[in-house]
Specification:
Elements lengths: L1 H13 L8 H13 L2 H7 L1 E4 L7 H9 L4 E3 L4 H14 L7 E4 L12 H5 L4 H17 L4 E2 L23 H16 L12 E5 L18 H8 L1 H8 L4 E4 L3 E2 L2 E2 L4 H11 L5 E3 L7 H4 L6 H11 L4 E2 L3 H11 L5 H17 L19 H14 L1 E5 L13 E5 L25 H9 L4 E5 L13 H9 L3 E7 L20 H9 L5 E6 L15 E4 L7 H9 L79 E8 L3 E2 L4 E10 L5 E11 L10 E10 L3 E10 L5 E2 L5 E2 L3 E8 L7 E6 L1
Parallel strand pairs: 1-2, 1-10, 2-3, 3-4, 5-6, 6-9, 12-13, 12-14, 14-15, 15-16, 18-26
Antiparallel strand pairs: 7-8, 11-16, 17-19, 19-22, 20-21, 20-25, 23-24, 25-26
Helix pairs in contact: 2-15, 3-14, 4-5, 7-8, 7-16, 8-10, 13-14, 16-20, 17-20
Bound molecules: 1-deoxynojirimycin.
1-deoxynojirimycin binds next to loops.
């Protein structure tokens, strides 16, 4: 009885659901807390970075004193084990450490960048990749990853779009949860599970002008309907931790935002996981001009409910004084410490603090490489295929030219955030093609350009000679990995350097061109579309990229990737995303006038105007959801089986997928809806479901989508989640511009 009472009151204090906590932990947490000194409590709230592979004498002392809750960026197992030993065996209370690291898209085996993984539209593959990442990271002692990044990213200028799942909150929620599941497994105590960290809370992807760390302004309705939803899903899916964002949101830096973290996250959602600051982001509150000094920053971070401070030491330096001045209460500190201890208990670290290295498979083993290849293969998106130049047939070729700075660069194909990735494990396009073509087909390789950004064209002649000796030219161009990622934002998204000039020089030979693009973001491909025959967008595909690309261009598999983000025609269109609002003056092909059609000195009028640019078509170059394959697919006979549904009911829509080709195909069928009239304006389309379907050559396949009416609800003007009656449209097809339409009514 006594224990149950304590459990309830501690749950209330933590703002968590009583059922979620094991009473055994509550007793242990209370016991520990009772024994902890203030400095030991402050230690739990602090995360430190140390020189790699070393334990400096002063840090050893800190560990012995119990002044450390977590260490970041150490990945040397011996060092981690020794640090853990000191914490567990030599500190007074023996509280184990959390070892955090950015394991973003793989550890030693590197998977495609998250934006590429999103192009698989496969929760299964994303979960498998995260599982491998967790196994490899945990075998090196890491028990906490700062992933998944679930920031909605509608701006390809922003370098960190590479780390995201793209522009759609629904897809991001699904894939974010899949990644969390892959890291955490069904029990954080499993020897190969690691804790996830959903980041960055919130709005970071909407930085003005796509410039990293820039201010963000998003009204509450849009926050709730879009930006917060993947975090709510992560909360419901029990992601162990979250990370606060660097940006200020509507004038309040996220790392000091009480409304966001206390009112919404803790009180409304009941999140009981650990909230971590970003690197130095609490100290930066004063740099934002939000606080006067570090002490005030610590106060703001604590009041906002950030449990652990990454790297900066405003908590360690000022908590004692803040307490003695009565500016914060001991109960606030206790709540923060309890959340951290709770995570450590849930992870079983008190019982098993060390990595059981004998239980782990080898790093980068064959199985991990196979999964990396499969994810990479499914992440590539075929954007263009004039005259069906792809797939290439080995038997029909006597020679292939392979050109480009990224064709044989095992490092650059790995992409951003690969602290532990190692180019020596990479299979490049050159290696894969050499092995595949053997002595049967000549392979003429020339880089053409030393790097993706150089303007030195002295390698062109060699490339042109190689192409002239070949039946087809495969160009591997794009962006080096350091041109995307944190703080690597661009205003010009064309192929950098002299790459377009190289394409033009090769085009002049008349040889068919297959362009493979490796990049961390959507590039503006408009200038090169006419100069190349096929475009396969491979993102940064990771360790097995070359092998996966070879399998696709030679038709061993048909491409299955679909864009998780719209590709703009030019930078001026940004932000352009499929789920925008209708506006009061929507543009259509019938009412849009191109600049050349506007007479000189035409009279200014408000009549017949629309929401569009006059110097660029209003659609993106490639829409969200788009991706070609080898063979002809079409959708037919859409039938809404439930023309009116009640709030408790479900929408059922049938469609037929038709494969008129000689190949078996995997297609991602997508269901979009539009709520035509609502108390707040709703997007022109919203993705509500998708299915990866395997369809045999020359066959028809029925597909049924079932959508619960509750999935149609949204936040209204009063920020209540509601389902409003009225007319809806729905579409099913292979991308967000699907034309097969039906309608239904919520009654
Ligand atoms: C800053 C980044 O914003 C965050 O995503 C990352 O996890 C931390 N640094 C730690 O490296």
């Amino acid at each position: 009885m006594q224990t149950a009472k304590m459990a309830v009151s501690l749950s209330l204090l933590l703002g968590i659901n009583h059922d979620m906590m094991n009473t055994q932990y509550l007793d242990q947490i209370s016991d520990l807390l009772d024994q902890m000194t203030l400095s030991e409590k402050i230690g739990q709230l602090s995360q430190f970075q140390t020189p790699y592979g070393q334990i400096p004498e002063n840090f050893k002392q800190q560990l012995q004193n119990g002044d450390v809750g977590s260490v970041l960026n150490e990945a040397d197992l011996d060092t981690i084990t020794e640090m853990q030993r000191i914490a567990v065996e030599e500190s007074r209370l023996g509280i184990p450490l959390l070892f955090g690291r950015d394991v973003i898209h793989g550890f030693k085996t590197v998977f495609p960048i998250p934006l590429g993984q999103a192009a698989t539209w496969s929760e299964t593959l994303v979960e498998q990749a995260a599982r491998v990442s967790a196994i490899e990271a945990r075998s090196s002692g890491i028990n906490w990853t700062f992933s998944p990044m679930i920031d909605i990213s509608r701006d390809p200028r922003w370098g960190r779009i590479a780390e995201s799942f793209g522009e759609d909150h629904w897809l991001t929620s699904k894939l974010g949860n899949a990644m969390v599941d892959g890291y955490q497994t069904d029990n954080l105590k499993n020897h190969d599970a690691i804790a996830a960290c959903a980041k960055h809370f919130v709005g970071y992807g909407a930085a003005e002008s796509g410039r990293d760390y820039n201010s963000v302004n998003i009204c509450e309705n849009e926050l709730r309907n879009v930006y917060l939803t993947p975090f709510k899903s992560a909360c419901d899916n029990k992601a162990a931790s979250m990370m606060a964002a660097f940006n200020d949101l509507n004038g309040v830096p996220a790392s000091g935002n009480e409304w966001l973290m206390q009112d919404v996250l803790r009180t409304e959602w009941g999140y009981d996981g650990v909230m971590l600051s970003d690197w130095d982001s609490i100290r930066q509150l004063s740099i934002h001009g939000f606080t006067e000094n570090d002490k005030a920053s610590a106060l703001a971070g604590i009041n906002a409910g950030i449990d652990m401070e990454m790297v900066s030491t405003t908590y360690a330096d000022h908590i004692e004084q803040l307490l003695s001045e009565g500016k914060i209460k001991t109960s606030q500190i206790d709540t923060m410490v309890k959340r951290i201890l709770l995570l450590k208990f849930k992870m079983g670290l008190f019982d098993a603090p060390y990595t059981a290295s004998e239980k782990f498979p080898e790093l980068v083993n064959d199985q991990h490489r196979q999964i990396a290849k499969e994810v990479a293969r499914n992440s590539c998106v075929l954007l263009q295929n004039k005259h069906n130049v792809l797939p290439l047939a080995k038997d029909d070729l006597s020679s292939v030219a392979l050109i480009g700075p990224l064709a044989d660069d095992g490092y650059e194909q790995l992409g951003t955030w690969i602290f532990d990735g190692d180019e020596q494990h990479s299979v490049t396009c050159l290696q894969a093609l050499k092995a595949y073509l053997g002595n049967d087909v000549a392979l003429n390789f020339a880089k053409g350009l030393a790097t993706s950004r150089t303007t030195d064209d002295s390698g062109f002649n060699e490339a042109i000679t190689a192409v002239k000796q070949s039946d087809v030219a495969v160009l591997v161009l794009g962006e080096e990995s350091i041109l995307s990622g944190e703080a690597h934002c661009r205003t010009n998204l064309d192929l950098p350097g002299a790459q377009h000039a190289l394409i033009r020089a090769i085009k002049a030979t008349g040889t068919p061109i297959v362009l493979v693009v490796m990049a961390g973001r959507p590039l503006t491909l408009t200038p090169i579309m006419d100069d190349v025959d096929a475009i396969l967008y491979a993102w940064h595909p990771g360790t097995m990229g070359g092998e996966a690309i070879k399998e696709l261009i030679f038709g061993e598999y048909s491409p299955t990737g679909k864009l998780p983000v719209s590709f703009p025609r030019n930078v001026g269109q940004i932000p352009i995303y499929y789920n925008q609002k209708h506006t009061g003056k929507p543009v259509t092909d019938d009412n849009w006038a191109f600049i050349d059609d506007i007479p000189v000195r035409a009279e200014q009028t408000s009549m017949g105007m629309n929401s569009a640019h006059i110097d660029c078509h209003f659609t993106p170059l490639f829409p969200f959801g788009f991706g070609l394959t080898y063979g002809e697919l079409s959708y037919q006979n859409l039938q809404v089986k439930t023309p009116s549904i009640t709030p408790e009911g479900a929408l059922i829509v049938d469609v037929e997928l038709v494969n008129d080709s000689q190949r078996d195909i995997i297609e991602t069928a997508q269901l979009y809806i539009r709520d035509l009239h609502a108390s707040v304006t709703r997007p022109v389309r919203e993705l509500k479901a998708f299915k990866r379907v395997e369809i045999k050559a020359n066959s028809r396949q029925p597909i049924t989508f079932i959508l619960q009416a509750s999935e149609l609800s949204f936040y209204n003007q009063r920020m209540q989640k509601v389902l409003e009656p009225g007319l809806f449209h729905c579409w099913i097809g292979g991308d967000s511009q699907a034309s097969l339409q039906g309608e239904f009514r919520v009654i």
